[in-house]
Amino acid sequence: MSGNTQTYGHIPSNEHVHDHVTEQGEHIISTDAKIADIGSWLKRGWQDMAESPGISFFYGAIMALSVVLVYFSFRSNPIHMFTIATVFVMLSPFLATGLYYAAKQLEEGKKPKLIDSMVSWKANAGDIGFYAAVLGVITAAWAIFTPLLAAIVAQSHGLLIVDPSLGLMGFVLSEAGLKFMAYFVVLAVALTAFVFTISVVTIPLLMKDKNIGAVQAMIISFQISMENKLVMAVWASVIAVLLAIAIFSLGLGMLIVMPLLGYASWHAFNDLVKIVPANK
After folding, report:
1. 30 is in which domain, residue-wise?
2. What percent of the chain lies above the pLDDT cut of 70?
3. Regarding predicted confidence, which is higher, 27 or 234?
4. Which residue would you say has higher pLDDT here, 108 or 7?
5. Cβ distance 262 to 42 under 8 Å?
6. Which of 159, 176, 206, 211 has its CA 20 to 30 A from that of 61?
7. Angle, nearest 10°, between helix axes 175-197 and 78-95?
8. Closest-CA residue to 196 (of 153, 231, 149)
9. How far apart are CA 243 and CA 12, in angstroms?
10. 156 — pLDDT class (breaks 50, 70, 90)
């Protein structure tokens, strides 16, 4: 049901809402967002960082260290480097689970604990695990496909790195490297856009409503993304730009970007989704 004007809980009766009925009879009510809401999500995410600096630093540092390790491990193999960077972006909704937990605790007026945030997925282990497995299959397929794409480009251009001593720059500046990057970027954007649509509210929904399954949560996430195409496109672009800055700063930016986006995504979920139990 779309464009409903009923009143659900504390949702204003004049607000444009969409009713998604689950198999259990629950109503997942999504409201239309505005581009201006993105600034509010980021602002509240920043406030959460200030209220929970320890947890924020921990998750930011883990991602920063990961970027550094990937760079120094694969700087002589740019194809692997770009592949893993894309995998990081696609897995980021799952990697942010602990941050969603912290934001949820702060929302409830509680002080989040780091240890609890690290095992927060256990609250709905089966469905969150299934969702993580879906992301794992997608990223594994991408990791297998990327070298095939490189091989196709190499067939017509020879070695992808013209001067191995130049490393990453030699790859990017070569004719074959430019062609590979053109194909890679188009396909990576298309795939990450799809992952974004099935992920934007999935884990927060699974954490807040244990009655809903992973598949249904992903379907609802996709539907909500389609209901808010422009806002979600802008939000995805903001996420992509911030993650790119964090990655290209050799991971240093992850200290801020990772927790900021994790908390902001929780607030985006809260603004977009309201859950009405089946007995109401």
Report:
1. 2-276
2. 84
3. 234
4. 108
5. no
6. 206
7. 10
8. 231
9. 35
10. low
